[in-house]
Amino acid sequence: MNNNYRICNQCVMDTSDNYIVFDDNGVCNHCHNYDLVVTNNVIPKAQRQEKIAHLINKIKLSGKGNKYDCIAGLSGGMDSSYVIYLAKKLGLRTLIVHFDNGWDSELAIKNIENIINYTGFDYYNYIVDWEEFKDLQLSYFKASVVDVEIPTDMGIFSLIPKVAIKYNIKYIIYGTNIETETTMGTGWNYTKMDRANLEAIHRKYGTKELRTFPNYTSFDQLLFKIKGIKQVNILNYAETNYDEIAKVLYNEFKWKNYPVKHGESIFTKFYQSYYLPKKFGIDKRRAHLSDLINSGQKERQQALEILSKTVYSSLSEEEYEYKYVIRKLGLTEEQFTDIMERPINKHADFSTNQPVNNITDRVFLKIKDTKILTAILGKIYRIFS
């Protein structure tokens, strides 16, 4: 072990985050940041009922005369499933959107089916072309950057606003659980909406044209603003204890939990449990467990015991998942070994500037007067809507 190794006295973040800082009491910057973020963003329980009632009334008024009040993404994971539960409980007519990238686990598929059946909500399942998406994921592996989850995350975050525009839905409800998803090591991930970075990486290492992968263009973004679509983190108004949420979801949907966080995706589990630890020395469980400690949902000693074990219950389970993933990606073991041994690159080693990729962008990004731009886009929207 590195002689300079340190671990926080309050949470379980350590010097695997190269930029971690400790105060005189051995408490890290992540703990201090956690307190600040939660204080500034989480609504006190005494105020939640009144505020959520006001919010739901606004959402329902916005949906008057429309088929849907709101739209919500569903991966089958705990947070997104809980968002759908809250939408049903609060009487919102919700369109569920799922981004199918070919990596859903069997348990995730079953959980999603149960949720759809129990809620009766309409379901918009967007299936991206597998060969195209595989080519995009392989590009990230070949680029040797840390966040190979960006194709999935960007696909989801680009798709939902486009569907909201299509169906004239004014509210997107989502579920970022601030009390359990605040901590993250510096450099352990990358921004999820840098289209230029994605295209630069794919241009260098990919071979297929991105025909079905969602593209949230500048034109889409302007339409989004013109239509006044709002995004609401509904978990700020609700119970955020994972044990309690799991009970609610089981009772309501017969929803079953996953062995690890984000285990609804076979790829995400492999990425966090195999790829990140072995290539980058990053164990994201430290961040997740630290949030559970700081939110009072887990004792520090419990977290340390979890970290002392690998995610995989046995070597045979790890080997099975490893072989499944590389086979699905069309790689040989030798090719994947080469990927694991490549020198690490930063995302910033590739272009990060917003490119002007199409005629729409070239025209509209040159118009500086917001009022003129809004008027033009409004007329275009009325013609085609």
Task: Provide a short characterization of the protein structure.
With 385 residues, the protein is mainly alpha-helical. It is 51% helix and 6% strand.
For this entry, give a set of tags.
three-stranded parallel sheet, about 375 residues, mainly alpha, two-stranded parallel sheet, globular
Care to describe what's here?
The structure is a single chain. The protein is 51% helix and 6% strand. The chain is built from 16 helices and five strands. It has helices spanning 29-41, 45-62, 78-89, 106-119, 130-143, 150-166, 195-205, 218-226, 242-253, 266-280, 285-294, 300-307, 315-328, 333-341, 359-364, 370-384, and strands spanning 70-73, 94-100, 122-127, 171-174, 230-233. The strands form two sheets. It has a three-stranded parallel β-sheet, with helices on both faces. Strands 4-5 form a two-stranded parallel sheet. The radius of gyration is 22 Å and the shape is globular. The chain starts with 28 loop residues before the first helix and ends with a helix.
